[in-house]
Amino acid sequence: MIAVVPTKGRPEVVRRLINSLAGQVPDVVVVDNNDEPDAGLELISSLRVHVVHRPGYPPNISELLNAGMDAADELARGFGAERWDVGLLNDDVVVPPGWVDSLVGALHETGAAAAYTDRIGRPGRVLQTAIPVPHHESMTCWACAVRGELGIRWDESIKWWYGDNDFDYRCRSEHGGVVAVPGPVPEHTHPSAQTFADAELSRQAHVDQATFENKWRGRV
Question: Which of 15, 60, 14, 13 has its CA nearest to residue 33?
């Protein structure tokens, strides 16, 4: 698996995430949204850390994720891979030991497009293809794995919130499903903190909700 992590101005937070991935992935693509690149991100740990600099405000998180996924695909093809997995992680996540193996195994054995750790404690894997999605069944796009060779990308017209809902819906309805996997649960340390602290991002969240609802109206 190649991990993709968008970040902006939280070097201590992203360092903690990358260190938690040590021993689980060989490569991490950090998509840095700072106006000036954070110094030293490539030197965080024993992992190979590749930094893609994408400045701009307000940030378009879907665009940042797509840039990271493009970079991950380029790495995988450079290694000669025909199939590869991409981990999508918010920078404020801490990954427990065994998390990557649990999701990669599920992707390979079920044929699902994406996988995430089940939040409601079911004992076995659950492949999900139905939409709309109840909240407790929604994919944790802040810590999930995607089959990279499928070429799925985030809808860049949904810039900050609801891109994860849209990505989840498309994986279920167009690409073979999403699998919920029992196993170690990642820690999400600052959920929604950036949105609530920034009036522009809060405004964008409401715009994105309308964009998402209009896109899927009549399809769910």
Answer: 60
